[in-house]
Every structure is written in C-alpha cells, then in structure tokens.
UniProtKB/TrEMBL annotation:
<protein>
    <recommendedName>
        <fullName>peptide-methionine (R)-S-oxide reductase</fullName>
        <ecNumber>1.8.4.12</ecNumber>
    </recommendedName>
</protein>
<dbReference type="InterPro" id="IPR011057">
    <property type="entry name" value="Mss4-like_sf"/>
</dbReference>
<dbReference type="GO" id="GO:0030091">
    <property type="term" value="P:protein repair"/>
</dbReference>
<keyword id="KW-0560">Oxidoreductase</keyword>
<dbReference type="GO" id="GO:0006979">
    <property type="term" value="P:response to oxidative stress"/>
</dbReference>
<dbReference type="InterPro" id="IPR002579">
    <property type="entry name" value="Met_Sox_Rdtase_MsrB_dom"/>
</dbReference>
<feature type="signal peptide">
    <location>
        <begin position="1"/>
        <end position="25"/>
    </location>
</feature>
<dbReference type="GO" id="GO:0033743">
    <property type="term" value="F:peptide-methionine (R)-S-oxide reductase activity"/>
</dbReference>
<feature type="domain" description="MsrB">
    <location>
        <begin position="43"/>
        <end position="164"/>
    </location>
</feature>
<dbReference type="InterPro" id="IPR028427">
    <property type="entry name" value="Met_Sox_Rdtase_MsrB"/>
</dbReference>
<dbReference type="Pfam" id="PF01641">
    <property type="entry name" value="SelR"/>
</dbReference>
<dbReference type="GO" id="GO:0005737">
    <property type="term" value="C:cytoplasm"/>
</dbReference>
<keyword id="KW-0732">Signal</keyword>
Length: 173
C-alpha cells in the first residue's frame, strides 16, 4: 500500500513541470464584443493614440505599401483588433495568405464593420471600416477562398494582433 502511494506521488510530482507549461500556454477565450457604443470623435482625437502611419491609414484612408506589415505572414492563434479603438475585427482562423502582401481574411467578426462604395480608382470597390470608431481598414473583394468567397484585404498598420494567450485590451475611446 505504501509503495502504491509513493509511486502515485512520484508520478504526480514528475508531471508538474509539464502541467505547469500547459497551463501557462493555455488560451484565453476572446469573446465577440457586441455591447458597445459607436464613437463620434473627430479624427484628430486619435492622433496621439496610434502611430502616424496608422493614423494616415485609419483616418485619411491611405494604403500601406504591400508587404510592409509583419501581420501579413503572422499565423498565430488570436484576434485582430482595431488599432485605434481596440474593437475585435477578425479571428485568426479566418486569416489566409492571399499573396497580395496585405493581411487577408475570409470574413470579419459579425457586426464589427461598416462598408461604403469607394470610387478612388477607375472601378468601384467596397471599402470597409471599424463600425465603432470609423477607422478605415481596407477593401473587400469577391475573389477569396471558400467558405465565403471573400477577401477582406486589410492594412496591417490599422490592426493590432492579440495572441490567444493574452486578454483582449479594453475598448478605448
């Protein structure tokens, strides 16, 4: 009886480092934010809250250079939030390599985006923006993979990636 107790204790003690490592690497549930108030701040409100490059993309509808964002090739588990107001916009499981040089997704988190027609180029496109702060994110095209057939082509500088092991930041603004 004592040998069995000793053996059980030794096995439990030996597995503690493995269990601890597993607990440290566990993921935090990133819930969809559905209870928020759209913001009506002037664009200058965000100027000191994001980088100059992010501000130009978010509030002047600029486009970052293709291939310039480290988020383009990032495929870790987590959530992509708006760089300005931190509203969750995309889940990592919806991200794919579109070959365009910009982070691309098959869909946005439902209720997170607003859209409008954009006539800046010769043909009309669908621009999308954070529904909470109005920050420009990118354009959606109908040339993506299944299941949606859509490519949500995003400026990386307009996003912040939150790994699944971290809590989502509080909404700001």
């Amino acid at each position: 009886m004592h040998r069995r107790h000793l053996l059980t204790t030794l096995i439990a003690a030996a597995s503690l480092p493995l269990l601890g490592r597993q607990l440290l690497a566990s993921t935090v549930e990133h819930k969809t934010v559905t209870d928020f108030t759209p913001l009506d701040h002037p664009h200058d409100y965000w100027r000191d809250k994001v980088s100059p490059e992010a501000w130009r993309v978010l509030f002047e509808e600029a486009t970052e250079r293709a291939g310039s964002s480290p988020l383009d090739k990032l495929y870790e588990d987590g959530t992509y939030v708006c760089a300005a107001c931190h509203l969750p916009l995309f889940r990592s499981e919806d991200k794919y390599d579109s070959g365009t040089g910009w982070p691309s997704f098959t869909q946005a988190i439902p209720g997170s985006m607003g859209t409008k027609r954009d006539f800046k180029l010769v043909w009309p496109r669908t621009e999308y923006h954070c529904i909470r702060c109005g920050g420009h994110q990118g354009h959606v095209f109908n040339d993506g993979p299944q299941p949606t057939g859509q490519r949500w082509c995003n400026n990386g500088v307009a996003l912040r990636f939150v790994p699944a092991t971290e809590n989502l930041p509080a909404l700001r603004g």
